[in-house]
Amino acid sequence: MSALKEALQTAINQWEESHVQQEKQMEQPKDHLFKTTNNVTRATFNAVRDTPGCKRKAILFGLEHHGYKLASTTSILSQMIKQRLVREESDGKLYANFTEYVPLKATSKPKAKPVKKAKVQPQAQAGIAALQPVSRSAIITTNFDVDNILKNLTILQAKALRDALNNLFK
């Protein structure tokens, strides 16, 4: 009985140790996909927030003076306006819509739909040479039965046939 008790106690201890190790692993911070290098997005937002009512050129010039690239700040400012973090009034003045910086959302480009190519039939590749001549006798049937033809026509087809025959015999 004591051997069973000892074996059970060691199994419980091992389980608790592995459980504690798993919790420690879950508590460790996960690595980010990339590290922040110069906070150009945050600096752009702060420039608009700290100088409300300034025009775009003035803000971009100030950011360029602090060492940020003009192309980057121009693009980021346009995205902020587009995503409504910043609003641009009709007179060109910029105002922040939030008191704190909110990261930009990823924009996705619409996926191009693949163009399906039409399958070329073997006859279409050969062109006119692939066409077989049809004899006139094959078109004219000797078993011409008006009732049989009329039974197989819909009302719309019959009307179209009548109109065509009227035009033919005028």
Structure description:
This protein has 170 residues and is mainly alpha-helical. Among the domains are: 57 residues, Orthogonal Bundle (Arc Repressor Mutant, subunit A), CATH 1.10.10; 38 residues, no CATH class. Helices cover 52% and strands 4% of the residues. The chain is built from eight helices and two strands; from the N terminus they run ααααββαααα. Strands 1-2 form a two-stranded antiparallel sheet. Helix 2 crosses helix 3 and helix 2 packs across helix 4. The longest helix is centred in the N-terminal third of the chain and has 26 residues.
Alpha-beta content class: mainly alpha
Number of discrete helical segments? 8
Number of strands: 2
Shape: flat
- What is the rounded distance between the termini? 116 Å
Which percent range describes the beta-strand content?
under 5%
Considering DSSP H and I runs of 4 or more, what fraction of the residues is helical?
40-55%
Average pLDDT score:
80
Give the CATH architecture of the domain at 40-96.
Orthogonal Bundle
- Give the biggest beta sheet: 2 strands, antiparallel
Compact summary:
The protein has 170 residues and is mostly helical. The protein has helices at 2-27, 40-50, 56-65, 70-82, 122-126, 136-139, 146-151, 155-168; strands at 86-88, 94-96.
